[in-house]
Amino acid sequence: MAVRLLHMADVHLGRAFGYLAERAHDHQQRLFQAFMRATEVARQHECHAILIAGDLFDSPRVARQWVDRALDALSAVHLPVLVIPGNHDPAEHHPFRERNLPANLHFLPRAERHELPALGLSVVACPAGTAREWGRLLVREPDGAPYQVALLHGSMPTPDGPGDLNPSLIAHSQLDYIALGDWHSPQDFSAGNTACWYSGAPEMILPDQRLPGCVLIVEVEHGQPARVQPIPVGYACYPSSGAEITMDITSFNDSQQLIEAILPLLTPETVVQIRLIGRWGGAEPLEPFQIQRRLQPFCLWIRVVPAFQMGVLEPDNPFERVFASVVTECKAQAGSSAELLDEAFQLGLYLLRGGRL
Length: 357
Prior knowledge:
The chain is α/β, with parallel strands linked by helices.
């Protein structure tokens, strides 16, 4: 028979989410709800086991409520659940070490093989911090279980560093599947006959990950390449038009008009970057940070990026007209530097009206 597995990682239960400020508490709850969705997906797809590839918890010192809730949820699925430590919940201080675990939960703190004979499944556990042992373990045993997979928490090489996983090990292993944890977006690193994926985080951990968060359904059948299906479970999402929205502000006269145009795009789960382009012709300076601050209560996370030009400002009160006359007098004597005085005048009006450098 085929073996069907649910692969997730990097849940980060109990994360503080300081960058979300007053929205942090609600997002902590979303995180747990996405985790619960993942266990429901396992039931719906009639999975035989759940693989959690590290960082189930954000810290070894996570609040007890998150550990209790995770144990209750995993006990209720009535499936074998295999969990390895990650770099955020390392083996020596993992919240599961001092707890009585349900019979279906297999906590694997060391680099070793773990057998599930009833499923004909062998799982190679490769927790964070055990990379020196991965080379000898990530090899198919010729007389081993019919299905052989690995559960590994580590980083692939990137331009920023070598990582702790050698990509050549993947094809060489001849395993049916390698379930990776550590990166927060799903990514395929399959090589040779071995399927190898990061599942990504089930819910948004940082806004630069791919959204909505996913888990993977992995089906392994004898003599066939493993089939991998991403299933969205996260709540945080982009607007229908995508992660970045470009808005031409040329036709807007004031910041309130611009805010009212953006608001319909936002929900409490929206994550978006707004790029402002065109020429701003309003009488008051357009402050992207203030636009962002006013929109933030209406969404989960937003960034407003200035890529626009300021229109020419004209003096519109007695003080500004006096300022203009002084600049005009100076220009008459400035010669070749007159253009710099024009720039200084525009900058002065911008600052006088509340603009910031």
